[in-house]
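User: I'll paste a sequence; please echo it back and then give the predicted structure.

Assistant: Echoing your sequence first, then the prediction.
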Amino acid sequence: MSNELAAGESEPPGSPISVPELRDYHQINAEVVRRLQRGERRVILEGPAGHRLLLAGLAGPWEAVIEVAGDAGPELAAGLDAPGVVVVCRGASADGAGSGLRAGSVLRLGPSATAVGYGQSGGLIVASGPVGPRAGLGQAGGELVLLGGAGPLAGDRRKGGRFLLAVGDGSGLRPEDADLLQAAKSLRDRHDGGPPAG
């Protein structure tokens, strides 16, 4: 029997990481890295309730989806530098989600607080739910797409990168912005079904 997956099939996850049991973000992030290093392509963080710095500073060559099944605290995926990693947060996130993002993708399905993508220099952030004020503050690179609206001062003091506040159906966008909007919606639609039953 072959161990290869058929096209479109996803690899079943290992057991979820219980965030309340580990509590400390250093331990949680170290366990995520351990699983990625052993080749897991789907990691689920179960039960976060405002835990700060989840997935902050992760850097590596992995190809994986990391699902946060609950509400993330401040600085979710801050400084992420992992081009093949997609972080999917299904709950709300506190201030600074994706701040300092260098490489990789962060998909926010729930509401987000202040300064999503603060200081982002690379990668892709897609916020499907509403975001608070100052999204994209100081953005220097990467792509930030807000599908669910934004609070005041969105895009404040940006230095570079692509910032897209999607309004309506996207008609009238430049072709490159329409392509970015389509890619963001495609990422959202691929991951919006919830974590796999298990």
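The first strand starts at residue 17 and ends at 18. DSSP finds three helices and eight strands in the chain.
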